[in-house]
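Researcher: Here's the sequence for the chain we discussed earlier.
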Amino acid sequence: MNKLFSWLDKAEKVVCGTGFVFLIAFVFLSAFLRFFRVSMSWNIDLAMLLLAWTAFLGADVAWRSGQIIGVDILTRTFPEKLQRLIELVVYLIILTALGFMFVYSLRLAWTERIARYQSMPIPYSLVILSLAVASLSMIFSTLQKIRRVSLQLFGKDSSPDRRSPE
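Model: Thanks. This is the structure I predict for it:
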């Protein structure tokens, strides 16, 4: 199972990085061609599609690797067990929010399946699916974090680094 998650993590990083490179290229190309009065309206629409995918997948990459900013100014003075318990509660709240995001993004994608971009024959639902895919991936990442904190909280794991990536 860890091999699968490792492979998915690498694939997500490659897709995110490649999408970002193409996003920059499309925006630069559009600006350059506009200088010569050549209009490529599909360029901006495709760049926005790539922006949605890279932003949401990038958020999951940051979440999984512990790069999301956390404010622990209050909790760092608490005992270790209480810190873990608060961390577990926060992860459960995040998991619930991600579950709602996943369900409602699928519903919205189904609703918008007929609407298309004006400049491309691509449905809007493809953009909305980026949220569904990223929230599902973040659900798996959050479940791994919950598992790790639960093992630490209940004495099965004594590793001191609670923010290390899986």
